[in-house]
Amino acid sequence: MGEPHHEEGRAAPLRVGPLRVGPLRVGMVCPYSLSVPGGVQAQVMGLSRELRRMGIEVRVLAPCDGPPPATFVTPLGNSLPTSANGSIAPLAPDPSCQLRTIRTLIDEEFDVLHLHEPFLPGPTQTATLLHTAPIIGTFHSAGESAAYKYLRRPVLAASHRLAHRVAVSKDAEELVQRYIGGEYEILFNGVELDQYATIGPYPTVGPTVFFLGRHEERKGLDVLLAAMRQLPDDVRLWVAGTGPDTARLRAQYAGDSRIEWLGRITDEEKVARLKGATVFCAPSLHGESFGVVLVEAMAADTAIVASGLDGYRNVATDDVNAVLVEPGDVGALAAGLKRALYDSDLRGRLVAAGGPRADEFSMRRLAELYAAHYRRIAADRELRRHMLNEAQERRRVSRMLARAFGRP
């Protein structure tokens, strides 16, 4: 290539060396405790593992109610149950967590910060307000947010510090745009597909439905349990997870021996149960911005019956790769489950369409998209630093020359 063109009358810029030396260092900050299962936590850990396999130095900062789940996690203290988006979220808004966050950010000197839910009280909000590294913000929530509603002015002021904004769906974009505006790139939630090829199915006897989620009103477990009363006696139900409604629902349905309450399960058992079940059921009523759990069921080659929420329609299409029913309608859910459980042709068609759809949401593909943004933002930062250093050097030389020639 030829020499770059410079306008006449302007000095050529000083030569600078490479903009980066060594691997890119990224701080991935999660507001929710990694000791509590959740969609955002799963995305943070899965994305971090994939990025590290790609050679990017990722360190996760998050609350942990116990030992950190990986060596690349820096725990920021215990969480406090906090009401958020119709759920109880394990956040850490206390001063001790803020101090740990600040100390870690100073010590680590990250090239880029990647904040999930940047404006929730706790480590992400602290990092947004106080850190100097360029920031990518990923927004997950849909529906309504008290943090945006009641802290709109400081949130709006802090939003200008984001170098790039990502929403996981149109629903998540609509929520954050409503309060702070701006432009957002839509990037899907990812699934680590490799484990679905290596883990075998959990053994079952007869038609089996699998539910996985927090036991609270918005997840619709009440509706599924009521629908079970309309299903044949040979249908079994696996219920994984826990929550504020667990004790009440277990007592209410204690007489139904078809229901197996699993409690919290490992990721490996989750995959095995997904692959072993006849149907995966997601009967949520509201508050879902992206149906990553539906992608996981597709990856496991399992038929899906779910509520026809907008968040789930981001992933699934009725009668193509899922059976979608009216949210909260017990009869419609029971009818949808009967179709998927007993119509083998339908089930086979849903499974066949689900596999290719799941491939579109691979965590590797998502990691590559984020990595490109990290490199671009880090390079922009390094370039700005070099330009600042260059300007300072020019001023220093000018002052030196002025003194040499006796100018004031």
Describe this structure in words.
The chain has 408 residues and is of the alpha/beta class. The chain folds into two domains: 25-190 and 362-379, Glycogen Phosphorylase B (Rossmann fold), CATH 3.40.50.2000; 194-359, Glycogen Phosphorylase B (Rossmann fold). The protein is 43% helix and 17% strand. It has 15 helices and 15 strands. It has helices at 39-53, 95-108, 123-130, 146-150, 152-159, 170-180, 194-198, 221-228, 246-252, 267-276, 292-299, 310-313, 330-342, 344-359, 363-404, and strands at residues 25-29, 57-62, 73-75, 80-84, 87-91, 112-116, 135-139, 162-167, 185-186, 208-212, 236-240, 259-263, 279-282, 303-307, 323-325. The strands form three sheets. A seven-stranded parallel beta sheet has the order 3-2-1-6-7-8-9, sandwiched between helices. It has a six-stranded parallel beta sheet with strand order 12-11-10-13-14-15, with helices on both faces. Strand 13, helix 11 and strand 14 (303-307) form a beta-alpha-beta unit. Helix 1 packs across helix 15, helix 2 (95-108) packs across helix 3 (123-130) and helix 11 packs across helix 14. The radius of gyration is 25 Å and the shape is elongated. The protein starts with 24 loop residues before the first strand and ends with a helix. Mean pLDDT is 88; it is low at 1-19.
Features:
408 residues; alpha/beta; Rossmann fold; 2 domains; seven-stranded parallel sheet; six-stranded parallel sheet; 15 helices; 15 strands; elongated; disordered N terminus
